[in-house]
């Protein structure tokens, strides 16, 4: 109810006197003496002239609330809450005395903000109120505030004080503007005109991403930055100083968006490996600053600046970087003097170490001469020591590897920028299922390389991954720096072949040791032993110098900690280690480690590097083992075997064909034991039978815990499959994945026919809200009914609902939202009650196992199927079960009839199927009730009724189908044929782990069809 509408229900003659009583009347004048009169001194229940107490304020509030309830029309809230609303309004009115403001300030706030402050000042004033009462209280508060502000404006001192305040404010504003003009010289009109040209130039100049070092015939080599840019993360060590009484805590690593580098610091040193996105971030900051207009960006690549010798002064910034625009004289200094500059200094690692020292001096001189600007300096991690600029106030950030979600986003944006969306899905599937590719794609450079090569080859990565790794190595080791115009750094310039030779020896040493890190001293020893045989590297200096050049420029090594080296990607370590093993003829070493999953990629790359004869030897060694995993490893190696003996290829494929695709659930389980390697070998769905498709989805599901992204990529291919078993497998494996991602990628695309979606966690329940409606839902665990209803996007679409193991279910009234519900299953919901509230629903089937109060069942007159487990109250079934319901199926389980027996059963003459699993022996009276059911044709009996539970069972000639459940195999059923002469179908369900001899039943029922199952 808006305040104006509320005003229609509350007489102004009532509110105005209330406000007048709340405030004391002041004298005339402008209120210039002493200090401004605060509200605490104006209200009549605070201050020196108090004449109202809390009781009187409550009485006034009560009159207002009572008048609103007595007014014509529908009351604004339940009358039973009148006292609570009065208390809430009283608390808010009393909060006037706690506001630290005067009347002029209050009027400036407006009535809504004043009301909000009163609500904040009287916290919990609306606790326990209904929605209508809370809404009335808020509206009444705003209405009162309207009158309060009107009262203030009519006070004799208000107008005079307002004029005084305005005069003072204008004087202060004029003084501040004069000071600002004095401190900031008026910009020259020429400066403004130039910036109107310069800023768009910067935005256009840097709004492109370029990949250096790859050959692309039909693909562009530049893409719009706005489309392809991906927000990366950086880490920073956050120092926390302990209080005197606290123990000191270690520094914390905090992840922040890289583009927010200046949010808390004006000087930032950003470190990142080769290709991690440093230059792209510089471009993004320049473009966004140029378009926002709040800062003037200068992009200063150091490799360009140092060529001119002396590093430039501000006046020469644009000339040094080749900008064709000529600024007005002194423009750059005026920009920096005003603190409006954004200086993006890129590539500290791309200049020799001697130049780095003078670069620091140049930076510090500029910072001291022009304080207040923002500075970003980028570098590879090992170019300078960690505290190189710490004393000068530079805050260090380190770009982190891309996460899986980042990779997916990059691929999507890259293909959008390249206008090649048709290649996107196939590349994403490859990155998800092929682990070595996924490990390679951890920075924008490598992701961009893969995207470009994949598009260049029309949706296929290079034949065999060796070609991809060769292209990546060439790009990183030679072409990228050369095409960016970079020469030698620190006097050491290693050719591509020399770098590869050194790197592969380091890699093989790591592979043999089973590690991914190496001491710098150990690495220097390996390089030192290698230098005599690598002539081009021997002349570059000692082992430490050459290793330092490798570390700085190759882009393949990094230093994760002081004194430690590692490869930036495990993939490169395996690739280069395999290359060296093949060159040295270490095939026996490779085959001997084939059982070690850490060697899988090494062996596959060894097959890629080997000659045809060596490939055949290595593959035969894998097949000779006879295990499924090594057979599949041999199959995976075929991708890399360009030339191979046809007989060896045929043998590998024949052996693998017995494993893939799996043709049963058991085969799928055995296949999954081979590990994540299997995921990239799984076929389909094209060309698979329904059974094989089901086996493939089972295998991928079992591998989800080890390789969730790869497993999801496989399952995603089957989301349009029509087979019910396949669709059930896709639904049933949801718990192995992140809830929302799997729902989006797989579940929301499934055909829902005969399919039930099961939600076992809060995350899964929340994911339901983002999917198309499901008609069959199951919720497992303690979900509140209100949460379930709110999570379902279209409650009217739900026809089947199962609630399992849910102690949170109490009153069932919330289920009335499911207006189309025809089947409800409650399993172990011990507090469930209020079944009578389900009466308006078109409920035809109800299954209850261990519920609470069943009294309301009598109201459910539409039931055709009813299944009950647990004791029933009353003496007869008609005391509890719905008498008017046209029941056709009735199941009575353990302890259900302990008190009632089957008394009253014959009332439901519509029964066609009766299933009994009682714990007590059936009496003659019970059997008589059964015998009086004219349409009963199917009887289900539990094994616990044999041999004594049947009691005086009469002949029942109308029974034509018999189902026996939970049989161990030795029960005496010899008396059944004489009592059931009309049986033509016998279904025997064995207990778990038991086997039943159907021949015995076939002999007992020679004219019946006998079958066996589990149940």
From TrEMBL:
Pfam family, one: NACHT
Ranges of residues in domain NACHT: 266-583
Coiled-coil spans in chain: none
Full protein name: NACHT domain-containing protein
Organism the protein comes from: Streptomyces griseicoloratus
Species classification: Bacteria, Bacillati, Actinomycetota, Actinomycetes, Kitasatosporales
């Amino acid at each position: 109810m808006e305040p104006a509408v509320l005003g229609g229900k509350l007489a102004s003659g009532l509110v105005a006197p209330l406000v007048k009583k709340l405030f004391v009347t002041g004298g005339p004048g402008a209120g210039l003496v002493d200090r401004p009169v605060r509200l605490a001194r104006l209200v009549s229940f605070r201050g020196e002239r108090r004449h109202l107490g809390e009781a009187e304020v409550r009485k006034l509030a009560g009159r207002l609330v009572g008048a609103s309830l007595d007014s014509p029309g529908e009351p604004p809230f339940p009358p039973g809450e009148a006292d609570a609303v009065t208390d809430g309004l009283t608390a808010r009115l009393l909060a006037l005395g706690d506001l630290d403001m005067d009347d002029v300030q209050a009027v400036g706030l407006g009535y809504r903000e004043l009301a909000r402050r009163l609500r904040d000042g009287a916290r919990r004033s609306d606790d326990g109120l209904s929605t209508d009462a809370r809404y009335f209280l808020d509206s009444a508060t705003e209405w009162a505030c309207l009158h309060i502000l009107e009262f203030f404006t009519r006070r004799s001192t208000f107008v005079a004080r307002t004029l005084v305040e305005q005069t003072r404010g204008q004087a202060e504003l004029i003084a501040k503007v004069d000071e600002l003009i004095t401190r900031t010289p008026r910009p020259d009109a020429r400066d403004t005109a130039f910036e109107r040209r310069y800023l768009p130039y910067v935005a256009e100049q840097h709004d492109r991403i370029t990949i250096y070092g790859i050959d692309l015939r039909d693909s562009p080599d530049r893409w719009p930055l706005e489309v392809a840019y991906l927000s990366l993360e950086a880490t920073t060590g956050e120092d926390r100083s302990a209080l005197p009484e606290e123990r000191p805590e270690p520094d914390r690593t905090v992840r922040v968006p890289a583009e927010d580098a200046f949010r808390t610091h004006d000087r930032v040193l950003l470190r990142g490996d080769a290709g991690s996105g440093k230059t792209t971030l510089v471009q993004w900051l320049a473009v966004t600053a140029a378009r926002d207009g709040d800062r003037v960006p200068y992009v200063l690549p150091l490799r360009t600046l140092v060529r001119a010798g002396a590093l430039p002064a501000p006046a020469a910034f644009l000339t040094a970087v080749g900008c064709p625009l000529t600024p007005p004289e002194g423009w750059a200094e005026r920009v920096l003097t005003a603190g409006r500059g954004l200086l993006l200094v890129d590539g500290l690692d791309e200049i020799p170490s001697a130049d780095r020292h003078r670069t620091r001096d140049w930076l510090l001189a500029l910072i001291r001469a022009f304080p207040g600007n923002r500075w970003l300096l980028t570098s590879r991690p090992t170019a300078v020591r960690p505290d190189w600029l710490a004393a000068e106030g530079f805050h260090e950030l380190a770009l982190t590897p891309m996460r899986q979600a980042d990779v997916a986003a990059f691929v999507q944006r890259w293909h959008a920028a390249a206008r090649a969306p048709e290649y996107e899905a196939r590349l994403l599937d490859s990155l998800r299922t092929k682990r070595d590719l996924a490990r390679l794609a951890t920075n924008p450079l490598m992701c961009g390389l893969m995207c470009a090569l994949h598009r260049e080859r029309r949706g296929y990565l290079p034949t065999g991954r060796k070609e991809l790794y060769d292209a990546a190595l060439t790009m990183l080791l030679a072409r990228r720096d050369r095409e960016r115009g970079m020469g030698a750094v620190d006097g050491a310039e290693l050719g591509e072949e020399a770098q590869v030779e050194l790197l592969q020896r380091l890699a093989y040493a790591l592979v043999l040791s089973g590690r991914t890190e190496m001491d710098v001293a150990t690495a220097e020893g390996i390089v030192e032993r290698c230098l005599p045989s690598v002539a081009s590297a021997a002349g570059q200096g000692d082992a430490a110098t050459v290793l330092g050049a490798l570390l700085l420029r190759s882009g393949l090594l990094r230093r994760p900690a002081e004194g430690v080296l590692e490869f930036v990607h495990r993939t490169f370590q395996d690739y280069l280690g395999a290359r060296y093993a093949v060159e040295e003829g270490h095939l026996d070493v490779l085959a001997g480690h084939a059982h070690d999953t850490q060697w899988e990629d090494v062996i596959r790359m060894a097959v890629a590097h080997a000659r045809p004869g060596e490939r055949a030897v290595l593959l035969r060694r894998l097949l000779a083992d006879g295990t499924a995993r090594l057979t599949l490893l041999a199959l995976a190696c075929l991708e890399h075997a360009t030339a191979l003996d046809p007989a060896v290829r045929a043998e590998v494929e024949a052996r693998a064909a017995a494993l893939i695709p799996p043709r049963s659930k058991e085969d799928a389980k055995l296949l999954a034991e081979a590990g994540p390697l299997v995921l990239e070998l799984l076929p389909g769905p094209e060309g698979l039978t329904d059974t094989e498709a089901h086996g493939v989805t089972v295998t991928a599901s079992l591998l989800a815990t080890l390789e969730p992204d790869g497993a999801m990529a496989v399952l995603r291919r089957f989301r349009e499959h029509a087979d019910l078993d396949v669709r059930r497998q896709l639904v049933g494996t949801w718990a192995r994945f992140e809830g929302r991602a799997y729902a989006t990628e797989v579940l929301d695309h499934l055909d829902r026919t005969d399919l039930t979606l099961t939600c076992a966690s809060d995350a899964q329940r929340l994911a339901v809200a983002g999917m198309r409606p499901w008609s069959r839902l199951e919720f497992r665990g303690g979900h509140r009914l209100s949460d379930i209803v709110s999570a379902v996007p279209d409650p009217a679409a739900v026809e089947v609902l199962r609630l399992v193991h849910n102690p949170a279910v109490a009153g069932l009234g919330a289920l009335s939202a499911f207006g189309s519900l025809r089947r409800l299953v409650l399993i172990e919901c011990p507090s469930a009650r209020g079944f009578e509230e389900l009466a308006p629903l078109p409920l035809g089937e109800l299954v209850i196992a261990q519920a609470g109060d069943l009294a309301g069942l009598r109201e459910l007159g539409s039931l055709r199927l009813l299944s009950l487990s647990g004791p029933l109250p009353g003496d007869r079934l008609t005391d509890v079960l719905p008498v008017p319901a046209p029941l056709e199926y009735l199941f009575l389980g353990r302890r259900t009839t302990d008190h009632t027996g089957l008394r009253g059963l014959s009332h439901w003459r519509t029964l066609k199927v009766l299933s009994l699993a009682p714990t007590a022996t059936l009496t003659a009276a019970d059997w008589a009730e059964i015998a009086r059911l004219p349409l009963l044709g199917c009887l289900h009996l539990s094994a616990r009724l044999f041999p004594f539970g049947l009691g005086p069972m009469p002949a029942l000639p109308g029974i034509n189908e018999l189902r026996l459940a939970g049989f161990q195999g030795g029960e005496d059923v010899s008396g059944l044929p004489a009592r059931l002469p009309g049986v033509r179908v016998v279904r025997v369900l064995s207990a778990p782990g038991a086997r039943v001899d159907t021949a015995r039943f076939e002999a007992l029922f020679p004219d019946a069809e006998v079958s066996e199952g589990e149940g």
